[in-house]
Design goal:
By secondary structure, this protein is an all-alpha fold. 70% of the residues lie in helices and 0% in strands. Among the domains are: 79 residues, NADH-ubiquinone/plastoquinone oxidoreductase chain 6, subunit NuoJ (Four Helix Bundle (Hemerythrin (Met), subunit A), Up-down Bundle); 40 residues. The protein contains 10 helices and no strands.
């Protein structure tokens, strides 16, 4: 049953990833990418990598894809222009794709990382936690790389916030201190208006 589920979701992942690059609508392409992420998460669950599966759904599906959809739906994308660019750059794309497939075949078919050198993992007991083992590896052997990645993400967040909050000319901004210090006499003026009955008597 596990093998059947693996091949089913692996095939589903391949089909949905092909739909990402073949559909005409960018929003549909983004949704097919979401399906690809879900299929990848299920494959990781079958490989007993629960932490990576949950992180894939939370980070990529819950955050990155929301950002992609927001950008795609806010931009006015010209489909005809994209098709013209696709046909124009098709030879270069084929060369890049063949190079990538050749590199993947060289790595997978090698003696170090390839299928020939693959050994089945050692079975663990029910108390084994891959999250605990991953945390030990990250905060011991790769602690400096982890901290550098965190600093880079922090710099990116600060840069995005600073670019968003930069002052632009001819824009109106609220001044909270002026709103708090305002008095009723500065904003309210009582005007006496004659009633309709007095106007009619005149």
């Amino acid at each position: 049953m596990e093998t059947i589920l693996f091949y089913f979701f692996a095939g589903f992942m391949v089909i949905s990833s092909l739909m990402v690059i073949t559909v005409n609508n960018p929003v549909r392409a983004a949704f097919f990418l979401v399906l690809t992420f879900f299929a990848s998460a299920v494959v990781w669950l079958l490989l007993e990598a629960e932490f990576l599966a949950v992180i894939l759904i939370i980070v990529y599906v819950g955050a990155v894809m929301v950002l992609f959809l927001f950008v795609v739906m806010m931009l006015d994308i010209n489909i005809a222009e994209l098709k013209a660019g696709f046909v124009k750059n098709l030879p270069i794309a084929i060369i890049v794709a063949l190079t990538m497939f050749g590199t993947i075949y060289y790595v997978v078919g090698g003696g170090v990382f390839g299928v020939e050198s693959f050994k089945p993992p050692t079975p663990h007991t029910a108390e084994y936690s891959n999250i605990l083992e991953l945390g030990k590896v990250i905060y011991t052997e790769y602690v400096f790389a982890f901290e550098i990645a965190a600093v880079i993400l922090l710099v990116g967040i600060i840069a995005a916030i600073s670019l968003t909050l930069r002052r632009r000319p001819n824009t109106k901004h609220q001044k909270i201190e002026d709103q708090v210090a305002v008095k009723s006499t500065d904003r309210l003026r009582v005007v006496k208006v004659e009633s309709q009955a007095r106007k009619g008597s005149r």
